[in-house]
Amino acid sequence: MTDMIIFMHDVTKGSHKGRQCCATAEGKDRNMPNPLKSLPLAALLIPAAVCAQNGKDRSGAIDDLIGCRTIREAATRLACFDRAAESASNARASGDLMILDRKTVVARKQQRFGLITPTSEMFGGGDADASTEVRQLDSKVITAMPAKAYGRFDIQLANGSVWQTIEALNFPPKAGAAVTIKEGAFGSYRLSVEGGRSIGAKRIR
Fold first, then answer.
1. 195 and 149, same structural domain?
2. CA-CA distance, 201 to 103, in Å (whole number)?
3. What residue ranges in 44-177 does DSSP mark as E strands?
4. Are 97 and 91 in contact (CB under 8 A)?
5. Which residue has the higher pLDDT, 45 or 182?
6. Which range has highest mean pLDDT (74-78, 92-96, 97-101, 182-186)?
7. Which residues span the domain enclosing 169?
8. CA–CA separation, 180 and 57 (whole Å)
9. Sign of CA dihedral 61, 63, 66, 72
10. Do both 91 and 11 map to the same domain?
11. Residue 129 covered by a domain
């Protein structure tokens, strides 16, 4: 089963909302003919239990896909999915609907961890953000150079980000040392090296 994020553009509000969904070709009723197996990927993205829409999330393509799952007669159900899949495909082509792999979303959030825009709000703070939340970064030291302030260091990590300690360190972290950075209170971050005590840090690029 593949974890996906369905990313919808709300044209009425100019905002974006995302939902986590699971793509699967297995039907709930094993005795019922399963038309899902013959459908394109766009029709396999919406299990009703996971992606039921609330009153504020209105997307005709998604609602149609969900509705098709309630039809028991195989031929009618397949025809419904064909129509809904075409509608979803058109929405995807126009940019109103995007489908992202969950691992890809998490990786992107890890790359942006510590920047001004909170990773918890990359998709508007909805379900997609909650299911891909990143509150900790684990990486390794590439280089550690003295900063202008005494006892502080600019630390480049293996993921390409550069962090500056805002509390004094007696010695710079060694290349290859494991680093963990966690979110703190009020938008702060705490950095620890090789499991040692945590100190304040900020991302500078």
1. yes
2. 26
3. 97-101, 136-146, 153-157, 162-165
4. yes
5. 182
6. 74-78
7. 135-203
8. 37
9. negative
10. yes
11. no
